[in-house]
Structures
1.
Amino acid sequence: MPGVIEVSGLTKVFGAITAVDHISFEVREGEIFGFLGPNGAGKTTTTRMLTGVIPMDAGSVHIFGHDISTAPVRARQRSGVVPETSNAYADLTGWQNLMLMADLYGVPRRRAEERSRDLLETLGILERRDQKVQGYSKGMKQRLILAMALLHEPELLFLDEPTSGLDVQSTRMILSLLRGLNEGGTTIFLTTHNMDEANQLCDRVGIIRDGRIVAIDAPEKLKAAIERLHRIEVSFDGAVTADDLASLPGIAGAGRTGDKWQITTEDADAAIRSVVALSRERGVRIVTLQTLAPSLDDAFLRLTGEEGR
Amino acid sequence: MAALQGRVRQAWAIARKDMRIYYLKGPVLIFGVFMPVFLFLAFYMGGRDLSPAFLLAGLMGMTLFFTSTAVSPAIFPWEGQAKTLERLAASPASIATIVLGDMTASVIFGIGVTMVTLLIALGLGLPLLHGFVLAAAILLAAVCFSALGMLLAVPPTNVPSNIMMLSSLLKFPLVFISGIFVPLEELPSWGMALAVCSPLTYFTDIARYSFTGTHFFPVAADIAALAVFALVFTVAAVVLHRRTMPRRM
Ligand SMILES: Nc1ncnc2c1ncn2[C@@H]1O[C@H](COP(=O)(O)OP(=O)(O)O)[C@@H](O)[C@H]1O
Ligand SMILES: [Mg+2]
């Protein structure tokens, strides 16, 4: 069975920058596919090409089997989009924005009203529907934009960093709504630079960096890769050498910036015990000690290392 | 058929959105009503022995031209800047439908305000000799000027003032070569060569014919010229926006 989204050799060049560099992947029916990467990796550019908003320079995209370059309308009719930078019309009310979508997607009026009411209720902004969007908070705006994307009951949903910069409440609401939609059968393509979000939500994650996909995997595997790699930052008031640290049990490597040592380890607990033991043994005091959550970059380094790039 | 109906619904929704957001605003409406009134007074005071019917026909041309091109060039830059355009572009509405929707709002606004000049004419007791011809010409010219407004929006800048500047540079000279201030009969041959290039010329000629019964070009030629300009501008606007729209994102 062909994928809901099939991407092959997709490329976009802006002047000297190759924003998206011959990427290929497919998204299967019913899955939540996470597209994960740091800022500037090419996530938005890819999403825009998948939704047919900007033309591609090479490659092909098929959505439900329709070529987005030649049959964009058919592809768009069955998918919903939450663009990264999109806004609802600030001078219209929430309700008017939704009715505009109903007209654009050809949803019968009665059905559109029913559905709008349900969506606004679920998203907790029903009582604000006749207010101009201007007066909405950022989280409310984003919830409205999500409602606008869902009005025509799309089978496929594109979301470009839907929770970026939102308050906790809105983020939770949106993520739980997405989970519910997916349980109901909606296929979801979600970009994010938030590893946790990808871990919590996605069935599979593609990691993009500098316009190239460096790994596509189930999040468990990504997680395993990260969890193997913790970092600890420690400083002492006396002299300690790299060899001292590197020879300790549980420590994979040590490097230094300024007076701080960065220690990488697969077992934070063992590493901290070793460091404490070392300080006692040498009679130096620990001035600061911090464990650093694994960053996306750590994961990338790890993953790209494994991919042999 | 169903597909066409869907497109009409999309275009009409876009037009209604434009009217709500850009046209039905206090200042825009006040501008719309006062502009023809002030233009008329300015004409009337300075009108060197030109007949009120002549003045009014010119006024009607200017009003329709300025109102139909007043807002339409700025809509794409505004929406690009406000980041609402990507939402539209990602919907099943084609670029042609979006352009036609924006034009529809502009046509309605242009015609609405032009009705004010018609009221001034009737209030002054001018005889409306050829109502049907005038109505047809107003509709065609409104489409033509609105399409011209969309054409002015083609450069993919999201800074509305740039586009407004560019449109003023084009719009004002056009008024002077369109037989509004000087009757076509009195134009030198180079003036005539310029005048035939301006769609406003043909509309003004018909407006004049509607109130005075005299015309410079055959009426059918005026109508045909307006129709051709309207078609060419519309097609050009759609084709060019298809090309530049992605660069606004
Ligand atoms: N319209 C554009 N013109 C020029 N460069 C662009 C444009 N859009 C994106 N880029 C560049 O392409 C790269 C990828 O950007 P983007 O897709 O927005 O990344 P992401 O969404 O992952 O943060 C960046 O280097 C960005 O500067
Ligand atoms: Mg982005």
2.
Amino acid sequence: MPVIHITNRAGAESTLEAESGISVMENLRDNDYEIDAICGGSCACATCHVYVDEAWAAKLPAQDDDEKGLVEDEPTCKPNSRLSCQIEMTDALDGLKLTIAPEA
Amino acid sequence: MSEHIVIVGAGHAGGTLATQLARAGDRFRITLIGAEAWPPYERPPLSKQLLMGEVPTEKVFLRPESFYADKGVDLRLGTEVVSIDRAGKTVTLAGGESLAYDRLALCTGTAIREIPVAGRDLPGVHYIRTIDDTLAIREKATPGARVVIAGGGYIGLEAAAALRKLGCDVTVIEMMDRVMARAVAEPVSRFYEAAHRAEGVRILLETGVAEIGGNGRAEHVTDSHGQVHPADIVLVGIGVVPVVALAADAGLAVDDGIVVDARARTSDPDIFAAGDCTRHPNALLGQTVRLESVQNAVDQARCISNELTDKGADYAEVPWFWSDQYDLKMQMAGLPAPDDQVVMRGNPDSRSFSVFYLRDGKVSGVNAINVGADYVRGRKWIGEGRTVDAARLADTEIPIKEV
Ligand SMILES: Cc1cc2nc3c(=O)[nH]c(=O)nc-3n(C[C@H](O)[C@H](O)[C@H](O)COP(=O)(O)OP(=O)(O)OC[C@H]3O[C@@H](n4cnc5c(N)ncnc54)[C@H](O)[C@@H]3O)c2cc1C
Ligand code: FES
């Protein structure tokens, strides 16, 4: 099982044994990392916002215009911001490091 | 001792509230009671991905079923609450069992509006409100199956798109002179009407359903012009009504929805309500509304959980909503009124454009079709009460951020 290293909103670090084939958002949501993911992954809400560790940024699938438009407008957006519902978890992402963005 | 919170209705609002309250640890003991057999789930995929068979059923659950027990939430499925005793602070379940509560949250949602015509009880007449409804339709939606859909609102049209994708023959019967008339401005209606026709959907406007007929099951629909449409599946999507009987019987204030204040409190201080079933004030909109959306279900659930954890704040959120049909992803925000000024931005022929609504120069709504950036900007402007120049807004040479 691939793992994801997560820093939660309170700043605590933990490692999640993730499931491949579903999104990073679903992995976070189903394990109660305080992600609301209101729209269920339809790229419509930005409540699955995370910061991806720089080292991983380039290894992720590229951002499409929809995701870009939505996340760029979050007041908490940073250059390494991603919407976790738009990233499918795969074995290749074993060791992915991310931080849950604060609630907007 | 922990405060016992009883939540009636394990839908989007109820499930969200339980999840939020569980984060407060021992402070609350939570019982979540749902009439359906399924754990809390998302309804939007019912007329989209689940109907098309693109996702397994578990994928629409808000959380895995085991989540609730893991978090100490007592989830009681297939269980209906039949009455509330406010003086004794108990609820009675269908089996006769009674449960004491410290605080009660009503998240009972809506129920489908039945079509008031002869033949409505025939087998083969379907609605889409639950997972079971969607699975039953999908079972029969084989290529070539003839589907007659009563109602050209967003659910009827999403179903039409999904069923076309499955190879069904689809007819939509709509009473008004355009589709989605309640939700969007005319240019958007016309665009969707054309898009559906291009996909091979028959759309009949200014037409009602007069009768559903058949021998022991629904086999045809007669429309208000007397035309008969053979049908293997009749699908009705003519709206919903709030589920308020429990609240009304208990003497709580009800007015097309359970009446709550800005903190989601009913007329009884120990009883809250959230989601589709509520009529609530929204300071941002300056009016009282009843909304049917995931956004409202989640934000009101959060409003209750904040109130119960001493972080209470008045409800003031921009309403937003989305609809997926074919490759068209529409995102909507605000609550435009029929007489608001309509400003087109972009060309519908490109299948990527938006419509903004202005009231006294201020942005009151946006419908963005395949342009996320316009939606995001519009939603923000609505929240800020911003005034924009209609001519600049219509000019796509000016980037949306600079309008
Ligand atoms: C097909 C479809 C597509 C949709 N698409 C979208 C979309 O794209 N975007 C969007 O924002 N919204 C969409 N919606 C609307 C959205 O799903 C609702 O607004 C949302 O589910 C409301 O949540 P709720 O918790 O208020 O009610 P519900 O989710 O309806 O939950 C209420 C629950 O309470 C239960 N209940 C009622 N009375 C009792 C009782 N006495 N005892 C026990 N249980 C009880 C019911 O069985 C039900 O399970 C769609 C809805 C449907 C049906
Ligand atoms: S879950 Fe809504 S945008 Fe990711």
